[in-house]
């Protein structure tokens, strides 16, 4: 992983049955950042220094990603939320503010429902919950960007096709999911490519998507139980699979009691990378009175 970022410390520990990797920075009330696909903790590099001026920032690699262990099972979002709980307990954090992007927002949603006393507020970034996608999925939606949900769900085949072609695979998403296709430099893309070339890394991300049936069952069990803590949802207006496919604010009003929505113009899926100016300002405002 990139080691040029200053003020960031890397850690590992055996937690919830797997070896977890996370980075930390700053001091103050704890703020956890959960990345999505196809990224790692590195996707938060433009937020960590800013938030670390006021907060203790914790950015883990999720199960199956980056430098965290990549087991063959445990990718349902309840288990992945429990990974995060184990990290909280290890670090002595009773209650946190949580920011999740993409897959990290799915883990965050399950965290907010299963561990209501451990979360004070939640930012869900460019995410439509799994249950909602399942209830609306059709050929049109697949063409808008969800085709790979089905592809990654096929056992073994994606790993075989992607092996040795990680750069082509990942660059497709970084380019097509961004308002500015050249948003990420070749050097930044190379950081992700190295992460996804690790043994088991492609399988780990595939298993994350293959857990969808379990995730949907979990989501349906408590669909009528709204998230209690305040929620901020942020999304890129120009991403075909989220901002252009759904009324994002309305979707999240169906999941939480207190929701505010912020669409970002001229922005694709990787909001925190493409428009860090807007994302950082909105997160700081949302966390203004977070005192731990």
Automatic annotation (TrEMBL):
<dbReference type="InterPro" id="IPR000639">
    <property type="entry name" value="Epox_hydrolase-like"/>
</dbReference>
<dbReference type="Pfam" id="PF00561">
    <property type="entry name" value="Abhydrolase_1"/>
</dbReference>
<dbReference type="GO" id="GO:0016787">
    <property type="term" value="F:hydrolase activity"/>
</dbReference>
<feature type="domain" description="AB hydrolase-1">
    <location>
        <begin position="29"/>
        <end position="276"/>
    </location>
</feature>
<dbReference type="InterPro" id="IPR029058">
    <property type="entry name" value="AB_hydrolase_fold"/>
</dbReference>
<dbReference type="InterPro" id="IPR000073">
    <property type="entry name" value="AB_hydrolase_1"/>
</dbReference>
<protein>
    <submittedName>
        <fullName>Alpha/beta fold hydrolase</fullName>
    </submittedName>
</protein>
<keyword id="KW-0378">Hydrolase</keyword>
């Amino acid at each position: 992983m990139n080691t040029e970022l200053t003020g960031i410390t890397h850690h590992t520990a055996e937690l919830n049955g797997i070896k977890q990797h996370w980075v930390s920075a700053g001091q103050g009330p704890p703020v956890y950042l959960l990345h999505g696909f196809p990224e790692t903790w590195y996707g938060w590099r433009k937020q960590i220094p800013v938030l670390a001026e006021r907060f203790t920032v914790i950015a883990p690699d999720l199960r199956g990603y980056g430098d965290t262990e990549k087991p063959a099972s445990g990718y349902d979002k309840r288990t992945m939320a429990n990974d995060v709980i184990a990290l909280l307990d290890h670090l002595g954090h009773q209650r946190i503010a949580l920011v999740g992007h993409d897959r990290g927002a799915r883990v965050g949603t399950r965290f907010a429902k299963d561990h209501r006393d451990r979360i004070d507020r939640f930012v869900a970034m460019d995410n439509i919950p799994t249950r909602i996608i399942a209830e609306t999925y059709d050929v049109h939606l697949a063409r808008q960007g969800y085709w790979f949900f089905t592809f990654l769900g096929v056992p073994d085949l994606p790993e075989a096709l992607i092996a040795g072609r990680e750069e082509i695979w990942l660059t497709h998403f970084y380019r097509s999911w961004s308002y500015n296709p050249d948003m990420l430099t070749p050097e930044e893309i190379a950081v992700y490519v190295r992460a996804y070339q690790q043994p088991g890394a492609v399988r780990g991300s595939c298993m994350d998507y293959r857990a969808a049936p379990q995730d949907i069952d979990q989501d349906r069990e408590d669909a009528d139980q709204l998230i209690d803590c305040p929620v901020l949802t942020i999304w890129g207006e120009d991403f075909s699979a989220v901002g252009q496919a759904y009324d994002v604010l309305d979707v999240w009003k169906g999941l939480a009691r207190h929701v505010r929505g912020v669409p970002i113009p001229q922005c694709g899926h990787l909001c925190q990378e493409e428009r860090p100016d807007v994302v950082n300002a909105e997160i700081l405002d949302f966390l203004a009175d977070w005192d731990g």
